[in-house]
Specification:
alpha+beta, 8-stranded mixed beta sheet, 4-stranded antiparallel beta sheet, 22 strands
Length: 575
Amino acid sequence: ARGGAARAPTTRTSAILPSKFRSDEREDESSVRQRREHQKELLSRLQADGQRRFAGEAGTDGEEARTVRRFESYKRETAIPREARSGRIIVDERADTVVLPIYGMAVPFHISTIKSASKSDEGEYVYLRLNLVSPGQGVGKKDAAQDDNGGASFVRSLTFRSTDVARMAEIHHGITGLKRDQAKREAEKAQLADIVEQDRLVQVAGQRPQRLGDVFMRPLAEGKRFPAALEIHSNGLRYMAAGRSGGTPVDILFNNIRHLFFQPCDKELLVLIHVNLRNPIILGKKKIQDIQFYREASDAAFDETGNRRRRIRYGDEDEIEAEQEELRRRRQLNKEFEDFATRIVDASNHDVELDKPFRNIAFTGVPARANVLLQPTVECLVHLSDAPFFVLTVADVELVHLERVQFGLKNFDMVFVFRDFKRTPVHVNTVPMKQLDDIKEWLDSVNLAFTEGPVNLNWSQIMKTVNKDPAGFYEDGGWAFLALDSDAEDDGSEEEESEFSMSEDELAESESEGSDDGSVAGTESDESEGDYDDESESGEDWDELEAKAKAYDDKRPRTGDPPVESAPAKRARKR
């Protein structure tokens, strides 16, 4: 069903066709036709939904309006350092302020108002130039700050001269260090802007919590990795990361888990439970959106070559036994992790649902730096085997555009456009062209509209245009400009058929004209046949031709007859 579970198309692994029957070809054509009709329906639904969502809504250019920020270095004049009253430049690190002497007065400038500082030597003097932040100074939008007070005057730069080289070098070093520390604090503040404070973990009282022992966590909380236990509590999970400091607990609440994945160790080196969070958390000093708990499928601590049985006899039986032992160990690991993941779902009262990747419809691509295996699930498209992890929620995607789809290329690219237009589209590059049909089938089965084109597009400019006026974008046709290349090839036959369509009256007229033309053509053909008969009568008949052929054969020498007398004459002439 379209709205139900996703169908699982089989990925072709051979160039040999599975069948040569015409009925199978007709079934493929019918499925392609149904997919095409369904995609048209999804695109029209997207158009209607976009017009309804952005009706009467004013757009933005994707960037917030920048205003001149106001800072307060000191609340009272007496708080200014006393050294500044002597007409010297003072760098006050406690207040993040540089006090400058201007006309004999100590004027404080917050470090955020200083854009840059430069020092130059000219002769016996040293010049210190301070560039200040002011509206309209930069040519780009990054520096296009606006001021609420239109009549205010701004100083753009200040230059100081001195003969004390060491003093000016110390001031320049202090200003650059203060500016660097301030930029670092601003970056940390911006990184923690979307951090939501979680509730406290309620531990299980009166009984031992359910545990999954000897598992590792990625990413690491500290420098080295140590195995620890993952516990299930009343409202979340706790992982006690072991380390030199004695262990740092990592708490994950059920209300902050968006997706929970279990990936078995079949054809993989790890068996794992992956947690995708709704709101990121701070782990160490980093912001984390995905946490993974895993165990290696191959036991490196078990030595299969040093036991006594191995030394006594060696052969294929030992290898078969080792393979069976490894398969048994992998099945046991899969069962242990899957049972624990099911217990997590039960403990959350099914607020968290367990999802599992479908390896049989997986495809390769480059979402970040390396070519990895991307596996669809019921709700997502994921890569969980290696870092950086890739988790893309299907419900967040508005449209998928397939780029570089043309004859002669071995790979194509995928672009996922989100329903939140302020999010940057996600690119998955270098997808094999042989998996194009399977990917289209999967996208259609999960009700994702897709388009295709022969070239790569400038998506930063496209999204900038969409965010500027989303209502006008949908009024002008929305994503229909992407579907032009897709419909050109698919609907070519339909356009050709529509060119020759005619009404019943035109059909009757054409039949009458055709009958007249047929009579004329018939007379012409009769005349041509009469001419042919005249020409054939003027020629020789078959009896005469046979008599001539027989006479010609009689003149030729037969096999076994004596040579003719003309041969010695020819020999005499050669002498």
